[in-house]
Specification:
Low-confidence stretches: none
Order of helices and strands: HHEEEEEEE
CATH architecture of the largest domain: Beta Barrel
Helix content: 10-25%
Number of strands: 7
Strand content: 35-45%
CATH superfamily of the largest domain: predicted glycosyltransferase like domains
CATH class of the largest domain: Mainly Beta
Structural class: alpha+beta
Oligomer: single chain
Distance between the termini: 72 Å
Number of domains: 2
Number of helices: 2
Radius of gyration: 24 Å
CATH topology of the largest domain: Thrombin, subunit H
Length: 140
């Protein structure tokens, strides 16, 4: 019984100390919080809700199409990753941000509409992040 009371006292003291340190600590700015999460030595965290998967190379070839200034554009892309709410693709030409596109993945018999969230230039290619506007659908 004495050991239980002593253990309860230690736990209570620990909680009081932790609460006191948090209350009187100087709050961090948003930049400091981000630097602590993603700064040097800290890997970026993937905080996406949906689980992503990487299609096999034989299934990763896709077509990206959109209309800009009355002209139809089309690019062959490689799907890097795919989830229920978006995709990452790689291609040799940039696509403007916020462009509405159609993604067709023939080997998976999937297609859907999306919005370009980002387009980043990498060595020899562009990486494009897509957010789907609705669910993907099966195509024959």
């Amino acid at each position: 019984m004495i050991a239980l009371v002593a253990l309860l006292g230690i736990v209570t003291l620990g909680l009081l100390i932790t609460f006191g340190v948090r209350c009187f600590a100087t709050p961090q700015s948003e930049a400091q919080v981000m630097a602590n999460r993603f700064g040097p030595g800290n890997p970026a965290k993937d905080e996406r809700f949906m689980k992503r998967f990487r299609p096999r190379p034989s299934h990763s070839t896709a077509q990206l199409s959109w209309v800009n200034d009355g002209k139809k554009h089309s690019l062959k892309v490689q799907v890097i990753d795919l989830s229920d709410d978006g995709a990452g693709v790689k291609t040799n030409k940039p696509v403007p941000r916020d462009t509405s596109v159609i993604l067709e993945i023939p080997n998976l018999q999937l297609a859907g509409t999306a919005k370009v969230c980002y387009c980043r230039e990498t060595t020899w290619a562009y990486t494009i992040g897509l957010a789907f506007k609705g669910p993907l659908f099966r195509v024959p």
